[in-house]
Amino acid sequence: RSKVFKMLQKNGSSPSGSADPKPLLEDDALAQTQTTELTDIKPSTFDNDQYYTVDDAISKIGNGKFQWRLMFLTGGIWAADAMEMMLLSFVVPILKVEWDLKPPLDGAINSVVFAGMLCGTAFWSILADKIGRKKVVIISNLGCAIFGALSGLAPEIYLMLTSRFLVGFSVGGSGTAYTLFAEYAPQEVRGSMLVIEQGFWSFGAIFSVLLAWLCLIELSWRWYMIFSSIPLFLIACFSKWMPESSRWLLACGKVEEAEKVLEYVAEVNGGELPEGTLKPVKVAARGNPFDAFKPRYRKTSIALYIAFFMCVFGYYGICFISTRFFEAAEGGGEGSEGWKSDKTYWESLVSASSELPALVIGWKIIDKIGRKKTLLISFGVFTGASFLLVLPFVQDSTAFAVSCVFFARMNISLGFMAIYIFFSEYYPTAIRSTALGMASAGGRVAGMITGFVAEDTPLSVGLLLYAISGAIAFVCILFVSDTLGRQMATSVVEPPQWLKDNIKQSLDVGADENYEGNFELQESTKHKVDEHRIDANNYEEMVPPSNGNGTDEDMNAGSNNSGYPTLQ
User: Whose CA is closest to 185, among 58, 336, 6?
Assistant: First the structure.
């Protein structure tokens, strides 16, 4: 098996009798040739026992102590960031009265946070693909803690807006924490593990309501904001145990470092790595946001980015407007001091708790029915529930209205979970953080808009806009393919270029695992294929057999006894 395979050649009826492979590679299909040639293929390409991938290693090690410990670190960041975001729904109504805020300044407190997140997600996500996940997670988390505490000390509106902008900028790095955990989740349970990871956001939102209930009635909004930043300081103390992503190290060409990290994971979990050494991958440029719009990704990226925008618009919208909705249901109507009423907190707690059933449902179904169906169900129900809240007879019934808010928030939360998972699985390591960050940056524009919609438009108009956003997201998801069971790719390579590159280089740099199409030969060059393949996310690329200069004896090492090399 250590023998270098000779040229594979199919002699055809071409007038020139040429073995030039160029026609084979044109038009993104193997359909323009009667000759096929593979040269300079290293023996390690075919010796499957010598190499293993990161997915192989993590699956072999299994889910264990390492993943749970990492989940509590990265999930804790999500929970703390949720507290920083959710506190706005309680603080803004108080500041409107205490500081006598008028439009647009009242809505600006919400929107400036999303403006910061818009800048932060673009900045941190690209940086994470260039310098690594760990550094970005630690720095952004510490920034959120510091500026969150300073928000509670702001003496007037403009310093408040500045500090909240910087909080938003720092929160923009929290998506990198999610990416880091996703890259260590075993493929077999990745969906359910990522749902649990995102469940920390829900617990953070619930804790924020309980903390508001205590602080806003017994203390003040300043203590509420300061206490909300304490969990982030605690997480910063434990961040030294956070590892760098082995996938990112591999994408940088740091194979030995990546292998050492995987050995550490195996040690913590009490597992073992597969036999052999970690398979190198093609080192390519990282962190280019335009790579998400290369031809092979373009249609799906456009649909996903629009759906993400609408998801953020609907999620924060229903969170912000529900507090105003419940306050309006109290005796004083809109503008009353509803934060002084226990009933407001009970209703907000019910609304926030709606994310817990979403967590359970997502954990149960997302690895069974897939990401796409989960998204369609969640956006569909959210649209229906939001539309019902527009109707006057629903608004007049407290029980019915609270139920609709419950189902709307439950399902948009489920959609949020599923779309994050979709992003982490669809894009390769080289742009995974960047693609998610760019979508999040666009989503922050939606958050800026929804801040004004929730505070400064009539309730019925705002709720109708949220229903429309859910419907648009639903339509977009119809145009994407599911990612259930997909291995995480490493680099961004267009299929035709990948073939051209690998005509004269070893295939052990790996095919692009997310290749989404089949190469097919013309009838004149098709042959029965036994078990040879290049594993590209369960797609097969057909290679014609040796029929000319090569013999079965020449191909014996690494063959499947049918004249075909086994490519994996």
Answer: 58
